[in-house]
TrEMBL record, chain A:
<dbReference type="GO" id="GO:0004642">
    <property type="term" value="F:phosphoribosylformylglycinamidine synthase activity"/>
</dbReference>
<keyword id="KW-0658">Purine biosynthesis</keyword>
<keyword id="KW-0963">Cytoplasm</keyword>
<keyword id="KW-0315">Glutamine amidotransferase</keyword>
<dbReference type="GO" id="GO:0005524">
    <property type="term" value="F:ATP binding"/>
</dbReference>
<dbReference type="GO" id="GO:0004359">
    <property type="term" value="F:glutaminase activity"/>
</dbReference>
<dbReference type="InterPro" id="IPR010075">
    <property type="entry name" value="PRibForGlyAmidine_synth_PurQ"/>
</dbReference>
<dbReference type="GO" id="GO:0006189">
    <property type="term" value="P:'de novo' IMP biosynthetic process"/>
</dbReference>
<keyword id="KW-0436">Ligase</keyword>
TrEMBL record, chain B:
<comment type="pathway">
    <text>Purine metabolism; IMP biosynthesis via de novo pathway; 5-amino-1-(5-phospho-D-ribosyl)imidazole from N(2)-formyl-N(1)-(5-phospho-D-ribosyl)glycinamide: step 1/2.</text>
</comment>
<dbReference type="GO" id="GO:0006189">
    <property type="term" value="P:'de novo' IMP biosynthetic process"/>
</dbReference>
<keyword id="KW-0067">ATP-binding</keyword>
<dbReference type="InterPro" id="IPR003850">
    <property type="entry name" value="PurS"/>
</dbReference>
<keyword id="KW-0963">Cytoplasm</keyword>
<dbReference type="InterPro" id="IPR036604">
    <property type="entry name" value="PurS-like_sf"/>
</dbReference>
<dbReference type="Pfam" id="PF02700">
    <property type="entry name" value="PurS"/>
</dbReference>
<comment type="function">
    <text>Part of the phosphoribosylformylglycinamidine synthase complex involved in the purines biosynthetic pathway. Catalyzes the ATP-dependent conversion of formylglycinamide ribonucleotide (FGAR) and glutamine to yield formylglycinamidine ribonucleotide (FGAM) and glutamate. The FGAM synthase complex is composed of three subunits. PurQ produces an ammonia molecule by converting glutamine to glutamate. PurL transfers the ammonia molecule to FGAR to form FGAM in an ATP-dependent manner.</text>
</comment>
<keyword id="KW-0658">Purine biosynthesis</keyword>
Length: 231, 79
């Protein structure tokens, strides 16, 4: 699997993403001002951080970067795109995913571990997990409160496009376990064709037992596995 | 030509920042404030002298960048 991690001015998790991807094949950083993705790119990752200092709205200015036209073309060809945290914010601003990420309901920036429920395992991003599996992943954001109009939410739920939901250690989706006020405790969503995933939590930071756990590894082995099967 | 663009959260969209400001005003004993909603104001200078062209230009700017129309409305004021 060949990965391209897009670097925007103000991204800061690109190194973490590269570290999580490298065991599965070549992974390189691509500057946002480029017009093209490297030849043979299988997976595009929009990493976390604070692109353009979160000016105007999180992700709004990065969504107009030159490279984004190539990212759209990659997604339209069915290529995989993963947006993590600020990357998720960029994807919704760019329109590859619906909705918007608003200020956390409690107004605070939240940086801590959080339980998530894996909602489906037949997508390329989550096949290494079990359906309903509870994983523990870091969150670090001030604007992760997912919102969309009621028709969009109904459509996402009806089509099974919620990838992960915030829950407690027992897997219960309760308002107490929802860190940011997201509608239906949505932590990540898929595009219509399930080839674009946007999520607020940081799986790339949970790949080493030294730093708190390995529950994020499954996401990267899932993606890599989807290419082994295809080839 | 000078213009102002106001970008505000649609009614019905929860505004936690506005709510926090509302609470702070109450704690400062600034009484009589019923509610606060926070928005953004852009002062823009435009080359054209034609108000209609200026308005069209800024509407485009709002649709493309200044406002996220999923949750925000905008208003253009030409002075």
């Amino acid at each position: 699997m060949k990965s391209a991690v897009i670097l925007f001015p103000g991204s800061n998790r690109e190194g973490d993403a590269i570290r999580a991807l490298k065991p599965h094949g070549p992974a390189e950083i691509v500057w946002h001002g480029e017009a093209d993705l490297p030849r043979g790119t299988d997976l595009v990752v929009l990493p976390g951080g604070f692109s353009y200092g979160d000016y105007l709205r999180c992700g709004a200015i990065a969504a107009h970067s030159p490279i984004m036209a190539a990212v759209r073309a990659h997604a339209e060809r069915g290529g995989l795109v993963l947006g993590i945290c600020n990357g998720f914010q960029i994807l919704v601003e760019f329109g590859l995913l619906p909705g918007v990420l608003m200020r956390n309901a409690g107004l605070h920036f939240i940086c801590r571990m959080q339980h998530l429920r894996v909602e489906r395992t037949d997508a390329a991003f989550a096949s290494a997990y079990e359906k309903g599996q509870i994983i523990r992943i870091a969150i670090a954001h001030g604007e992760g409160n997912y919102a969309a109009d009621s028709q969009t939410i109904a459509r996402l739920e009806g089509e099974g496009r919620v990838a992960f939901r915030y829950c407690d250690a027992a897997g219960e989706v309760t308002s107490a376990a929802n860190p940011n006020g997201s509608i239906n405790a949505i932590a990540g969503i898929y595009s219509e064709r399930f080839n674009v995933l946007g999520m607020m939590p940081h799986p790339e930071n949970l790949i080493d037992p030294l730093v708190g756990g390995t529950d994020g590894r499954g996401l990267f082995t899932s993606i890599a596995g989807s290419f082994t099967v295809a080839v | 030509m000078k213009a102002r663009v106001f970008v505000t959260l649609r009614s019905g969209i929860l505004d936690p920042q506005g709510k926090a400001i509302e609470g702070a005003l109450k704690s400062l004993q600034i009484d009589g404030v019923k509610s606060v909603r926070q928005g953004k104001l852009f002062d823009v200078e435009i080359e054209t002298l034609d108000p209609a062209a200026a308005k069209a230009l800024l509407q485009q700017a709002c649709q493309k960048l200044l406002a996220n129309q999923v949750v925000e409305d905008f208003e253009v004021e030409i002075s």
